[in-house]
Design brief:
homodimer, alpha/beta, two-stranded parallel ribbon, 9 strands, globular
């Protein structure tokens, strides 16, 4: 999560149990998949309210579950897009992790790396920083198995950087939203993480106000 | 560690075993107690060389152990003081951790927080950010037990911010080296961490070169 208070309301009476499960699942796949600067706040809160006429339901209708998920993802993305001083977002996807926890840990490391985030700010498709950040959490990663794609363009595979159209790559990495996909080649673990870049404006905003 | 190659040489023949132990101890109390931006490099290396006339010693003389420790600390500090775009360092000490690992984890979180590091850049004695960063690794921290001192001035104790001389505090937090001491009030765990601030110049340097 990042610093925020979020409220989602469902116009349908639901039992507390299924409501709680619904919220946890939705938060796990949205608010827990974003990071701005890695810092969190004591007041980070997501509330899911439900109410309406009739007996509270024990079962959450599928369209309601999908709608809550959609709204949670939308709100979470808005937080990143409103990140302090941000100029673009990175949509990071890790595949091929040993398991989901492993993939998520790598995703957090890449999305949290100041070097990756400043490269993103500069529109610099610096694949080395991305691989180095991934390796900070797992030194056993095998370069031969890694496959990295930036903005749909494969840049690293079989242990070597690939020949690419540099102009196209620069363009892709300067877009408002940059897709970064890293396959670790180990297992079925997958994770997503949405993050903003680290800009001079971020530093300015956070170094110049006293609280 | 941060990105670097360090070589320490001892003009005295020592057996590989004690040499290895000596280096590990020294690195643990120097290079492993610094962070610039949290990123590490695949070529981070510290070498300890030993040579000279005579039979290699099995025992490391105490003055040699102290000298190696001193040199390691000195070199490690130089890395932070040479951090990209840095304007001041924070000498962080965590006391009262549940154990040493716990204290070290808290130290890493505080020293690695972008909000703490931008506050440091701004010379802003923002104690709230320091406590919030500590709490990211241990949500069970009891505010009643915490005691925070910035540049020798106590700012938080018994669950409350303390009355301070704001001008003196601002001065202390704007010095080239700022001492930050946080007592968690739990046990005997202690840790040190030396870090640089996060400045606009850091972002400039790291977003504007392509590798």
């Amino acid at each position: 999560m990042a610093t925020m208070l979020a409220v989602i309301a469902v116009d349908l009476p639901l039992q507390p149990g299924p409501l709680d499960a619904l919220l946890r699942r939705a938060v796990d796949r949205s608010f827990h998949e974003i990071t701005v600067d890695g810092d969190t706040s004591t007041n980070d809160t997501v509330l899911l309210l439900s109410g309406g006429d009739g007996e509270p339901l024990q079962q959450v209708p599928e369209p309601v579950a999908l709608a809550v998920q959609h709204v949670a993802e939308r709100l979470a993305r808005m937080i990143v897009e409103d990140g302090e001083g941000m100029s673009r977002v990175m949509e990071l996807r890790i595949r091929g992790g040993a398991d989901e926890a492993h993939a998520r840990e790598v995703a957090r490391a890449v999305a949290g790396s100041s070097l990756v985030k400043t490269a993103l700010a500069g529109g610099d498709p610096n694949w080395g920083r991305i691989l180095a950040a991934a390796a900070t959490v797992d030194q056993e990663l095998d370069p031969q198995r890694l496959r990295l794609t930036l903005g749909g363009i494969a840049v690293f595979a079989d242990g070597l950087p690939l020949e690419t159209d540099q102009a196209a790559l620069d363009r892709a990495f300067s877009a408002p939203a940059v897709k970064v996909e890293l396959d670790l080649g180990l297992g079925d673990g997958e994770a997503r993480m949405l993050t903003s870049d680290l800009t001079k404006r971020y530093v300015e905003i956070n170094s110049e106000y006293t609280t």
